[in-house]
Design goal:
InterPro entries: Actin-crosslinking (IPR008999), BXL (IPR044993), CBM6 (IPR005084), Cellulose-bd_IV (IPR006584), Fn3-like (IPR026891), Galactose-bd-like_sf (IPR008979), GH (IPR017853), Glyco_hydro_3_C (IPR002772)
Oligomer: single chain
CATH architecture of the largest domain: Alpha-Beta Barrel
CATH superfamily of the largest domain: Glycoside hydrolase, family 3, N-terminal domain
Pfam families: CBM_6, Fn3-like, Glyco_hydro_3, Glyco_hydro_3_C
CATH topology of the largest domain: TIM Barrel
Family: Belongs to the glycosyl hydrolase 3 family.
CATH class of the largest domain: Alpha Beta
Keywords: Hydrolase, Signal
Helix content: 10-25%
Number of helices: 18
Largest sheet: 7 strands, antiparallel
Shape: globular
Structural class: alpha+beta
Protein name: Exo-alpha-(1->6)-L-arabinopyranosidase
């Protein structure tokens, strides 16, 4: 066959589906299977090159050499500026194209970004990677970034953006073994919308499955891949596996008995591309081939996956003349070009959030001396996906460049120490040789506290950080923590013989060997060496001296993105590192004109700062232009004299304490009152919060109509006036709340926002369309979104709790009927409330059920109708050895009248069910029902009512 003839896959004038079908027909089975790995093999006989997925581009091109480094994704989220985020995505996409142009074999055009997991819990180690805790805002910003990466050409993709991580992924703790419980409402109202928006808009063309399980089933086997995400568009969607995740199905997850079964199940579920064994495709090819031979998959499953892969490759222009593809000509000149540097500064500037500003301490006045203090005051830190910064402007450098070096003084505020034993002091060896016991005064080390008892040690002479190498020997040869396994962190442990050092990564204590070398190889404290710590310089005292002599103190604190909360490690709490907190308090004690700049990947519980400091700002780690952008905000203007407002707004709630949060693994935000949607407490700083340097007033909130049908739309309008004395930009936020409902509703929900820039005294009308359909909730009875007849409070303001005006909208929708188990079974997973249960998989491929984790667990179902002719109830259930008793009660799970008793026999294997029928007693009518599960391990799937002709009570049938 001639692959250059008209009507073939190389004909750019044919529709993509026709070209894909032609190419697919030319491939052998072996060639198709070889395309299912991340590193796709070339097909020389068709002149098709190799292809690889997975260029990291979260907020800049990562791991390929210097490239423009933009603020972390959570910082981009804080901009609340979709147009800016789209422009950042376009710049990153162009730089990916430039690297690909230079080395097409090493740099692929399938990019793994953006991350659209809503930021449900601020302790998540990867909090920095997401945009917001609100699913709608996450979807808007994720769509914007993906649209920039994708480009706006009607035929060709700039890059192929891949949404991460599908689905329910917000914990690093045992991430490949924990299951995220997603009841139907949480799934459809919170988790899915952020993924749906970029796919439905055509901005993202691929999705990565997540490491975790969802309702007891590995996410890589989720029926939602086919049942949801591939229904949101008519285009082909490429689904890639996360690194090593399909291997986990038979390994850590033990869901299938062997890798062949696991890989086959993943392919059937919709995984198209397997990210396994680095660049070694052999194991994946062998397992898929054997799955075919064993009949676990069909060749049609392979064809479906290859079709998705080829469609993306065609849209990237791989098989077309370069002259037809405008992105093919992008060269290295675009990498870190002046336009991208300006964009990086603008993005960093617009991501700064002013949390408080008492007494108008900010912006800083001219001719002031400024003390820049703290461990983040003269450094710019990168996270795992930041890439290589081409340069870095620190907070100190940014202010010194604007105010002059004589006006800016710096102190890091960290202790400098030496270590010694009875045999002598610890000395760093030359040229990165191991630390050992030597003579003289010993080497000085700067100790930086990163929280949770973790510190780093930086050798003063070399400026390099101490790590334990692969042999355990301590060496000072690193610029800082930065590898996948962080070997530069230690935990000081006080004991009777001095201070022990525990190497965190190895979980080994440091001891001095017979050769005098320090090694982290002691398994117990008893085997470790105790060190005497001599304080050379008190970091807080040094910082206090500098602060005392300055007009204003700017204390820059926060996290190291590679320490503590990061990929593979969740945060233990929300507290500032103790030494950083002590530094802040000491500085404020001598200089009340103290500004706290928190530079972090996540929120902190900084209650003391909130109560005592005049000014607090937050910014994510801001990339290469961080210091210049921060100086623009602190000084209220650019070097050219253009006024600058802090226009960032918080993309997630800042809580006062850990106690305000549910368990990290509790994904049921409705039941646990989590996120700004349901949180009933008083936050430290609310979702949407952010101040500026001028003031705005909101007047005359109004609706185009005060009543609307379920398929209708109204316009919300409000007048906004700048009542301050300088120009400024406001983020006008619109929220709604449904006042009455059959189900628990959010306390407030963001419906949209508008930016408006006004001169002093200027007024503008800000409007937002509101579709009644967007007010729907997911009804578990009908298994679809429903708009209820109800009144809604419509509010406008500066944050989710600072709502300056409200009005009422009446919606003419549906009256939700009571559940009727005689018509359709009540699904256990659709419970309204629960105690001591978890969601689990009903079968290996589809369905959800509920399992008791302790005796006496229960489920509740509100408003269930028991018709007058109903005399029996049937329960689909499973039980551990010995069987179990399940009671159906009215009104209360413990003391309510018993309406039915189900004696469930033991079921022989997982995913084996029995249906048990019992006599039903009690009055007809609408009742709140409870299923009380007698023993841990009892599992229920569905409850149905039947008439008097039902099978006798107790009769059961086993089903697979």
């Amino acid at each position: 066959m001639d692959d250059t003839a008209p009507g073939t896959f190389r004909d750019p004038d044919l529709p993509t589906p026709d070209r894909v079908a032609d190419l697919l027909s030319r491939l052998t089975r072996a060639e198709k299977i070889a395309l299912l790995h991340q590193h796709q093999a070339p097909v020389p006989r068709l002149r098709i090159d190799g292809f690889r997925t997975g260029t990291e581009a979260l907020h800049g091109v990562a791991w390929l050499g210097p490239a423009t480094a933009f603020p972390q994704a959570v910082g981009l989220g804080a901009t609340w500026d979709p147009d800016l985020v789209r422009r950042v995505g376009a710049a990153v996409g162009d730089e990916v194209r430039a690297f690909h142009h230079k080395d097409p074999d090493a740099v692929g055009l399938n990019v793994w970004a953006p991350v659209v997991n809503p930021l449900r819990d601020p302790r998540w180690g990867r909090n920095e990677e997401g945009y917001a805790e609100d699913p709608w805002l996450t979807g808007v910003l994720g769509t914007a970034y993906a649209a920039g990466l994708r480009g706006d050409h009607p035929v060709y993709l700039r890059t192929a953006p891949t949404l991460k991580h599908f689905l329910g992924y917000n914990n690093e703790t045992d991430r490949d073994r924990t299951s995220s419980d997603l009841p139907p409402r949480v799934l459809h109202e919170y988790e899915l919308p952020a993924f749906r928006a970029p796919i439905a808009a055509g901005a993202a063309v691929a999705v990565m499955a997540s490491y975790n399980l969802v309702n007891g089933r590995p996410a890589h086997l989720s029926p939602l891949i086919a049942g949801e995400l591939r229904t949101w568009t008519t285009d082909d969607v490429l689904v890639v596996g996360d690194a090593g995740a399909v291997t986990n199905i038979a390994n850590s997850q033990r869901y299938h008995p062997d890798h062949v079964a696991g890989f086959g199940a993943a392919l059937r579920a919709g995984i198209d591309c397997f990210t396994e064994d680095d660049d070694r495709a052999g194991p994946t090819i062998g397992r898929i081939t054997e799955a075919l031979e064993r009949g676990l998959v069909d060749e049609s499953d392979v064809d479906n996956a290859v079709r998705h892969i080829l469609a993306i490759r065609l849209r990237l222009g791989e098989f077309d003349p370069p002259a037809r593809n405008p992105y093919a000509a992008v060269t290295a000149d675009v990498v870190n070009c002046p336009a991208h540097r300006r964009l990086a500064r603008d993005a960093a500037r617009r991501s700064v959030v002013l949390l408080q500003n008492h007494g108008d301490l900010l912006p800083l006045r001219p001719q002031q001396t400024v003390a820049v203090l703290g461990p983040l005051g003269d450094t710019v830190l990168a996270d795992w996906y930041s890439g290589t910064l081409p340069y870095a402007v620190t907070a100190r450098a940014g202010l010194a460049d604007r105010l002059g070096p004589d006006a800016v003084r710096f102190a890091e505020g960290v202790d400098r120490i030496t270590l010694r034993t009875t045999a002598g002091p610890v000395q760093a060896g030359p040229d990165g040789e191991p630390l050992r016991i030597g003579d003289g005064t010993g080497t000085g080390f700067d100790v930086v506290d990163w929280g949770a008892g973790t510190v780093t040690l930086r050798a003063v002479d070399s400026g390099r950080y101490v790590r334990a190498d692969e042999t355990g020997a301590l060496v000072d040869d690193r610029p800082g923590p930065g590898e996948w396994i962080v070997r530069e962190t230690f935990e000081p442990v006080r004991c009777g013989t001095g201070t022990l050092l525990r190497h965190v990564a190895a979980d080994r204590y440091v001891r001095v060997g017979d050769d005098g070398v320090l090694r982290a190889d002691a398994a117990t404290p008893q085997e470790a060496t105790g060190f005497v710590v001599d304080l050379v310089t008190d970091g807080i005292e040094a910082a206090v001296a500098v602060a005392r002599a300055a007009d204003v103190a700017v204390v820059v604190l926060g996290n190291h993105p590679m320490v503590g909360g990061r990929e593979t490690e969740d945060r233990a709490d929300l507290a500032l590192p103790p030494t950083q907190e002590a530094l802040l308090r000491a500085v404020h004690a001598v200089n009340p004109r103290t500004v706290l700049v928190l530079t972090s990947s996540y929120p902190y519980a900084v209650g003391w700062a909130h109560d005592h400091l005049p000014a607090v700002l937050w910014t994510a780690h801001g990339g290469q232009e961080y210091g210049s952008a921060l100086a623009d905000v602190l000084l209220g203007g650019t070097p050219d004299g253009e006024p600058v407002e802090p226009t960032g707004r918080l993309p997630q709630t800042w809580y006062r304490a850990d106690a305000d949060l549910p368990d990290l693994l509790d994904y049921d935000i409705v039941g646990s009152d989590a996120t700004y949607l349901y949180f009933r407490g008083t936050p430290l700083y609310p979702f949407g919060h952010g101040l500026g340097y001028t003031r705005f007033a909101y007047r005359d909130l109004r609706l185009s109509a005060d009543t609307v049908d379920a398929d209708g739309q109204v316009e919300i309008s409000v007048d906004v006036v700048n009542v301050g004395d300088r120009p400024g930009e406001e983020v006008v936020q619109f929220y709604t709340r449904q006042r009455r409902s059959r189900v628990k509703q959010p306390l407030r929900r963001l419906r949209g926002f508008r930016r408006v820039r006004l001169a002093p005294g200027e007024r503008a009308t800000v409007s937002l369309p509101l579709r009644a359909a967007d007010l729907a909730f997911f009804d578990v009875n009908s298994d679809r979104p429903v708009v209820e007849s109800a009144r809604h409070t419509v509010a406008v303001g500066r944050s989710c709790t600072d709502l300056t005006a409200t009005t009422t909208l009446t919606v003419r929708g549906a009256t939700v009927a009571p559940r009727d188990p005689a018509t359709a079974a009540v699904r256990a997973a659709g419970r309204d409330d629960e105690y001591a249960t978890v969601l689990t998989d009903e079968g290996p491929e589809h369905g959800d059920a509920v399992t008791a984790v302790r005796d006496g667990a229960w489920l509740s179902f509100a408003g269930v109708e028991i018709g007058p002719g109903i005399r029996r109830a049937t329960l689909r259930a499973a039980a551990p050895a010995g069987g179990t008793r399940v009671e159906l009660r009215l009104r209360d799970p413990l003391s309510g009248p018993v309406a039915a008793v189900f004696e469930v026999p033991a079921t022989p294997a997982r995913h084996t069910w029995t249906e048990v029928t019992a006599a039903l007693t009690g009055p007809a009518g609408v009742h709140d029902l409870y299923l009380t599960l007698g023993s841990a391990g009892a599992t229920v799937s569905a409850l149905a009512f039947v008439g008097s002709a039902a099978d006798p009570a107790g009769k059961g049938t086993s089903t697979q």
